[in-house]
Amino acid sequence: MPPKFRRSVSREDLRAADDVEKETLLEHDSDPDEEMLFNRPSTSHNEPYRDDKMDSVRIQIKEVTDVMRENVQKVMERGDKMEDLEVASERLTMAGMDFHNSARKAHRRAWVQNMKARIIVGVIVLIIVLSILVLDIMVLYLVIR
Questions:
Q1: Euclidean distance between the first and final Cα of the chain, in Å?
Q2: Is residue 3 domain-resident?
Q3: Range of the domain at 36
Q4: Is 85 among the domain residues?
Q5: At how many degrees (to 10) do helices 19-27 and 31-39 cross?
Q6: What is the pLDDT of residues 25-66, one digit of tens each?
Q7: Distance (Å, rounded) from C-alpha 38 to C-alpha 57?
Q8: Would you state the pLDDT for residue 1?
């Protein structure tokens, strides 16, 4: 976790910074500009207090930009992970639909086979009952004669 930073710069510090530093700090956000800002020689040699303050502001700016870059990188990684999750979710949905359809087909096949088996058993029982009746009728016919 990054350390807590002082977020505001006093008006005194802004007045003390020269116009080029103000423009660089407020308008530009590219690596060459940052390198120029952090590595260029100090503009006043006889005011060590001002240099220390500017150095601390530069360090804070550098730390904040590093934190912001990390945050942007994390947001981009999060976006990539979200896209991956969406793709995986779509695949699971498709697989679920395929499973549902194949389960429905298997259920229908099992029902048809069950009905075929019941019909076959019914026909066999009917044939047996009819054959018994026919045999009984034939036996009665022979006994009566």
A1: 112
A2: no
A3: 11-105
A4: yes
A5: 140
A6: 555 555 555 555 555 555 555 555 668 888 889 999 999 999
A7: 10
A8: 42
Nearest to 43, CA basis, from 22, 64, 66: 22
- Please state the pTM of the whole predicted model: 0.43
What 3-state class would DSSP assign to 54?
helix
Contact (Cβ atoms closer than 8 angstroms) between residue 57 and residue 13: yes
Secondary structure of the chain in HEC code, one letter for each residue: CCCCCCCCCCHHHHHHCCHHHHHHHHHCCCHHHHHHHHHCCCCCCCCHHHHHHHHHHHHHHHHHHHHHHHHHHHHHHHHHHHHHHHHHHHHHHHHHHHHHHHHHHHHHHHHHHHHHHHHHHHHHHHHHHHHHHHHHHHHHHHHHC
Domains of the chain: total = 1
CB 54 within 8 A of CB 17: yes
